[in-house]
Amino acid sequence: MKRGLLFLMAMIWPLWGLAAAPDVPDPEAWVRLSPAEQAARRAELKQKLLQATPQERAAFRNRLRERLEEMPPEQRQALAERTRERWQKLDPQEKQRLINERRERVKAMSPEERRQLIEQRREILGKLSPEERALLREKLTGP
Questions:
Q1: How many domains are contained in the chain?
Q2: CA distance 45 to 24
Q3: What does the pLDDT look like over 32-90, one tens digit per residue?
Q4: Is CB count within 10 Å lower at the N or C end of the chain?
Q5: Residues contacting 73, CB < 8 A, separation 6+
């Protein structure tokens, strides 16, 4: 369950570098968008939020996390599974492009934003059971 939340947050994470000016996207509606529609929506949000302050971006990330955590576990798990399936269907070049975009967004963050990001990830990991952490560690380190 929590592992699904982590995966879903990782997929929606690109939006977390943005700000609070627009409403937080509905996770259910977001996952129903095609990858091209998601990219267009992400670019639109990014354009609107170029002037965002670190505090606005942090508030946006917090609202998105709260929205995901408020979802019933079954709904959150189904959403994470659909997101995972879509990721698996992407071609390797598209996956690499998305990874590179995320890397650039993190590099562009202020030291304070990066520190907050690390704290948020630690908080999420702290909520996982030892079994869930072990599965996640195994998945991230690969074969």
A1: 1
A2: 10
A3: 888 778 878 888 877 766 667 778 877 877 888 888 888 887 888 888 788 888 888 88
A4: C
A5: 1
